Amino acid sequence: xxxIIDSIWNVPVHVWNVPLIMVENGENEMNWxxxxxxxxxxxxxxxxxxxxxESQIGWVVSGNAEHAFAxxxxxxxxxxxxxxxxxxxxxxxxxxxxxxxxEKHFEQAMAAMSAGKHVLCExxxxxxxxxxxxxxxxxxxxxxVLGVNHHLRCAGSHRxxxxxxxxxxxxxxxSVRVFHAVHLPEHLRGWxxxxxxxxxxxxPDLTVHNADTVRFLLGEDPxxxxxEMAATGMGKGVEDSAMSIWTMPSGVMVxxxxxxxxxxxxxxxxxxxxxxxxxxxxxxxxxxxGRIELVNADGRSEVPFDKAGIYExxxxxxxxxxxxxxxxxxxxxxxxxxxLVAEAVRKAAETGRRQTVNYGVAV
Length: 363
Ligand code: NDP
Description:
Elements: E1 31-35, H1 39-50, E2 56-61, H2 65-75, E3 79-81, H3 84-88, E4 95-98, H4 105-114, E5 118-121, H5 129-142, E6 146-148, H6 156-166, E7 173-181, H7 191-194, H8 202-218, E8 224-230, E9 241-247, E10 253-259, E11 268-273, E12 277-281, E13 291-296, E14 299-303, H9 310-324, H10 332-351, E15 355-356
Parallel strand pairs: 1-2, 1-4, 2-3, 4-5, 5-6, 7-10
Antiparallel strand pairs: 7-11, 8-9, 8-15, 9-10, 11-12, 12-13, 13-14
Helix pairs in contact: 1-9, 4-5, 5-10, 6-8, 8-10
The structure holds NADPH dihydro-nicotinamide-adenine-dinucleotide phosphate.
NADPH dihydro-nicotinamide-adenine-dinucleotide phosphate binds next to helix 1.
């Protein structure tokens, strides 16, 4: 690493792409560019990437120059730019993390993959399932890894539940209930609540997470859905609440509840089987929180689980996928499938009719 040039902050606003630190890669280091100067990047992903030891963040790209520079300075990132092409032209960069608003994911990911960069993209993978399909094909054609930040399948809690189900601890699964009604924090009450074009609404925000969680826990894809949605005042032009029921190939019944406007509700997952029930509270979270109980004929017992940082695990498994040609925790196809479920939920709520989830475009 070379020294930080403090005076760079005095450059005129139009002079972007000026290095603060020259990043010099070792052969096996991963050098990331952040695309989107977002809350999730600042709160979790920068730390998660830096926790990997040798990984570095060389760039942040944002649509807003002042924001990009302020973000770079706050998080000690060498390069700030409004030009995606500038970061992608940097041969030291080998991966990008995309956390812009949802409607930008497609074009940014396509540009990154065509520049040969591995992509860890935020959910939803795109605002359109057709675009998500193109992203998966582009990753294949470019020979890069495309991962989706469905972080919940990286949580020790969800992995413990997965293992209990697959290990037969609750017998044959009968039903799953996912509670994901939260109180959207004040600082996130922007595009999510009033901008459908940016992918606002609780369905693209939270229902995709539920879809990925259920797919991960049960190892099967929802077949059809019925749903209701509502805008109860917080959502302006988009739904802020949704409830849906999903049928699974095995016959398991799934209930999913998502909302932005529940100040006192707890998140959770319940999985009920013929030999026991798993009751988990507080686990639809960004931190490794919550509590899992197993209830069966022997009584009630607490289930321990790994409390490792959820996003750290997601980044570690993405980097391993790149290094060893393995799969990331959630692949592009996982991202597309969760989007297909969410799309079916919205259509079911709009039409009042059951919708089949059409995996025909899934690649
Ligand atoms: P934010 O609203 O914080 O940021 C989204 C974009 O808004 C930024 O990328 C940036 O645009 C712009 N922006 C934010 N703050 C400013 C500012 N002060 N000035 C100018 N522009 C600003 O979004 P989130 O972090 O909540 O979400 C980003 C993405 O991450 C979404 O796709 C979301 O679905 C996903 N997400 C995933 C989570 C997970 O656990 N997997 C959790 C939370 C979000 P620009 O791109 O131009 O920099």
